[in-house]
Amino acid sequence: MAATSQHPSSAFAGATWAALLAGTLTYFVGLWNAGMQLNEKGYYFTILMYGLFSAVSLQKSVRDRLEGLTVSSLYFGLCWTSTLLALLLLLVGLWNASITLSEKGFFGMSFALSLFAAVVLQKTVRDSAGAAPAN
């Protein structure tokens, strides 16, 4: 049973792109200006990239299952595990980081905004593609 989808408005799509750019750019600016060692900056960069990929993959697998497409239980479990692991790695990293509490909050919030926006953007792109007339 396929779910019906509506074509998202241009304003919604633009707001979604803006949220993703705001989250990732502020995260990167924070990393650039942070007084961390280069290996620490690499850790936080990798966590963001891993989190974005895993969140989009989880959203896609959830949506595929809702639309009746086959998604193996193994892949579905790996998507959930990866997303939760990215969050856990960020939390552990921030807990142990020698940065101010406000910087920790900054990284946590920009990370959360980025992941949320990536999930919504993936849904928006998929809804736009599904609503487009077939050629």
Structure description:
By secondary structure, the chain is mostly helical. 80% of the residues lie in helices and 0% in strands. The chain contains 4 helices and no strands. It has helices spanning 10-33, 38-66, 73-96, 101-131. Helix 1 (10-33) packs antiparallel against helix 2 (38-66), helix 2 packs antiparallel against helix 3 and helix 2 (38-66) runs parallel beside helix 4. The radius of gyration is 17 Å and the shape is flat. The two termini are 23 Å apart. The model has no long low-confidence stretch (mean pLDDT 90).
Question: Which sheet architecture does the biggest sheet show?
Answer: none
- C-alpha Rg, in Å? 17 Å
The secondary-structure class comes to mainly alpha
Q: Distance between termini?
A: 23 Å
What form results from the Cα inertia axes? flat
Strand content: under 5%
Q: Count the E strands.
A: 0
Query: Mean pLDDT, rounded to whole units?
Result: 90
Number of distinct helices = 4
- Contiguous uncertain segments of 5+ residues: none
Bin the helical content.
over 70%
What is the chain-wise order of helices and strands?
Answer: HHHH
SSE map:
Elements: H1 10-33, H2 38-66, H3 73-96, H4 101-131
Provide a brief overview of the structure:
This protein has 135 residues and is mainly alpha-helical. It is 80% helix and 0% strand.
